[in-house]
Amino acid sequence: MSSDEAPPRLRRLRPDELDAEQRALYEEIVSGPRGNGPFALTDDAGGLHGPFNAMLLRPTLGHALQGLGAAIRYRGALPARCREIAILVVAAVWDSAFERHAHEAAGRAAGLTDEELRALRDGDDDVFSGVFADERERVVAVTTRTLAERHDLTDEEYARAVDVLGADGVFELTAIVGYYATLALQLRVFRVPVPGESGR
């Protein structure tokens, strides 16, 4: 049984169970820009989906982690399509069903096509080259896969990424890869289901 098919290890906390610190973090998550996003943040009882429920366990760290995610998603300079391409490549490398579920919705909202989403789910660098006509998007996809799998870039790979994205773009891309790998790890460890699939 894969981690995505296993029963959740963490009960989803309801808003009425939260202490003051947890409640402040909960409100920060649901009332921020994520609250109007392309995927549901809460279940019918108000419990948080995805990685956000676990963040409530340690609100001090949860505030910092969700704040980094909000900065990446809403205040970064990479275009939305590039950002979602990077996130979906991380989801594919980690085989993270929840990240794929959430960010395929976000990717569609950013203009990614079904063909592009399939390539990000199942493809490799050659497929990326055939699907993404925009050079920046191709470089984001290939560089993200390299970072997520190999955790480094050769001098040649780094030079290519900087040539297309700029050093600041490469910095932002490494932040995306690191953040979503962290979430993928937490989603795996806590056996967080895709909404509607064996969640409690």
UniProtKB/TrEMBL annotation:
InterPro entries: AhpD-like (IPR029032), CMD-like (IPR003779)
SUPFAM superfamilies: AhpD-like (SSF69118)
Residue ranges annotated for the Carboxymuconolactone decarboxylase-like domain, each copy included: 59-121
GO molecular function, one term: peroxiredoxin activity
Pfam families: CMD
Protein name: Carboxymuconolactone decarboxylase
Gene name tied to this protein: pcaC
